[in-house]
Amino acid sequence: MVSGLNDVESPSDYDDYITFLKRRVRQLELQVRTLEADKERLERELSRLRMEMSRMRQPPAFAGTVIEVLDDERAIVQNYNGPRFVVRIAPWIERDKIKPGSRVALDQRTMAVVELLPSDKDPSVLGFEVIDRPRVTYRDVGGLEKQLQELRESVELPLKHPDLFRKVGIDPPKGVLLYGPPGCGKTLMAKALANEVNATFIKVVGSELVRKFIGEGARLVHELFELAKEKAPSIIFIDEIDAVGAKRMDETTGGEREVNRTLMQLLAEMDGFDPCGDVKIIAATNRPDILDPALLRPGRFDRVIEVPLPNFKGRYEIIKVHTRNMNLRGVDLKVIAEMTDGASGADLKAIATEAGMFAIRARREYVTQEDFLKAVEKVLGAERRLAQQIAMHEVMYG
Ligand code: ATP
User: Fold this and answer.
1) Measuring from atom 31 of ligand 1, which residue has the nearest CA?
2) I want to staple 70 with a disulfide (CB 3.0 to 4.6 A). Which of 74, 227, 270, 375 is the partner?
3) Coil, strand, or helix at residue 129?
């Protein structure tokens, strides 16, 4: 083996030596290329870290509001209620997005507008879900005829014919409370109603209202009603109202005080609006038993509607809704409705989707009874086994 010039003793050793050197050169070239790639990568990383560091070193910016846009480069801004400044607009700001009222970040030293902030009236920032007119219709609600009729009477009729109530001399209900187990169509009915009356649907979740900072909950409730008025006709849907409206207890913790403040604001807003106006409020809960009675007084949520788990007929109607556009072959939906005692509307929807998935997996374009049976087992099986385990546990340990 030739590994150096000293080992060369014959011409053949010399050839070996040359081969050895060539191999070594190739290895070194490869090493150079790898090291160059590493160097490039590290340089990129270094410049990224430098940028991050310089961003961190920047002093915090002021928040301000644009009062007037003077031209492409300058605007008048105000920092809270302080003095107004004529400032520069940084070149990277999109000009068509900056308007009087826009919330902006201002450089601390020059007061230049350096960033456009999301508007604090922006519903998505506030955590509201706003749908201009939901696409769900009454046809998409299975069963629940009685509940739907009651809801329509309480909300749709006064929205469509407020004069009727004025002539008769009674106030329509201000708010409707829907209660019942999850997944049984409370949100669905409220959306269908908004569609029917061509109203904006504004949904907010109670637990989100009280999870924010102190004082935010009450502000959000106020913003919610302001937004509803702006977008009227509109339906405010408060899901999980129990998170805001549970019975008031001793205010020992800041958290409880915050919940109470939010509830007080909600009651105040409800008391302040016209029952014949075009903003309606529907709330939903799974725990009506823990609600503060103040919420259920006349002039507040004075119509209470139970939305229970569907019975056989209800399940049959719901499964019909969810299989309306499915290509079924030899499927008896009544059998499925029979087998699914205790299932919610959401479960039945999941069963229809699962049955479709079984057909797709079998590369079929139609869905069979067998697919549905497997889907029922898949969706309800695990749930039922869990319920059985809990029941067993209760029997054994009390
Ligand atoms: P939660 O208490 O969890 O908010 P919910 O009662 O508001 O539950 P929905 O959101 O209305 O439940 O239902 C979830 C989904 O289940 C609906 O989008 C719909 O697809 C289906 N569903 C529930 N109930 C029905 C029903 N009665 N008819 C047709 N579909 C239903």
Assistant:
1) 345
2) 74
3) strand
